[in-house]
From TrEMBL:
One of its GO terms (cellular component) is bacterial microcompartment. It is found in: Bacterial microcompartment. It comes from the Bacteria. PROSITE patterns: BMV (PS51932). This is Ethanolamine utilization protein EutN. PANTHER family: ETHANOLAMINE UTILIZATION PROTEIN EUTN (PTHR36539). Keywords: Bacterial microcompartment.
């Protein structure tokens, strides 16, 4: 799983049948310091209703049709992160 921030929307006027009706979001992975990691930006299928600036968990294991496509899915919107211990 990847902790990421939603940084934008991806507009695709034509999609394969399996992705029709899905929202595509641009996400940037976060490091241990919770800051964006340079060159770690992905497009993910939104399955939870996330929006720009939300912190989310992104997973490729739950990707739609992963046997056909290498896609990532947003599987959770993160409310709080507790660091330390």
């Amino acid at each position: 799983m990847i902790l990421a921030t939603v940084t934008g929307h991806v507009v695709a006027t034509q999609k394969c049948d399996q992705l029709r009706g899905s929202n595509l979001l641009l996400v940037t992975a976060l490091g241990d310091d919770l800051k964006p990691i340079k060159d770690r930006t992905y497009v993910a299928v939104d399955s939870v209703g996330a929006g720009v600036a939300d912190q989310v968990l992104v997973e490729d294991y739950f990707a739609l049709y992963k046997e056909q496509y290498k896609a990532m899915s947003i599987v959770a919107i993160v409310e709080k992160i507790h660091k330390g211990c």
